[in-house]
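Quarterly update from the structural biology core.
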Amino acid sequence: TPSPTLPPRLVQKAELVRLSQALRQVPSLHWVVVEDAPVLSSLVSGVLHAAGLPHTQLCTATPPQLKLHEGDPNWLKPRGAEQRNEGLRWLREQAAAGKLVRGEEGVVYFADDDNTYSLELFEEVRERGRGWETN
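Predicted structure, tokenized:
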């Protein structure tokens, strides 16, 4: 749970660093991070570069009409849909431009920076050959 005494961006940095530590143990990984913002942030760029993982940083802001308001139940509007779609758009562009290695299988897994992940999860996803979304 984020601490109310810390600014939200510092909580995001801590969550991304924690996630990067888990992802560094996963072989052949390319980390695509899509920020919910109109422009890329230097905070996220710094974390990604410090992680030392192959990565792509993207951004797309959630339109105001799709954002939850105080008191709204969390199921009222989709969360992160714009960002997931942006990540999939980028992946399709890479495939269309021939920038993905042909003949190699890959897995797309939608992770959330405020969750904690076990290495066993990534091993199971790789074995199954497909990912599934978590919320």
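The CA atoms of residues 83 and 89 lie 10 Å apart.
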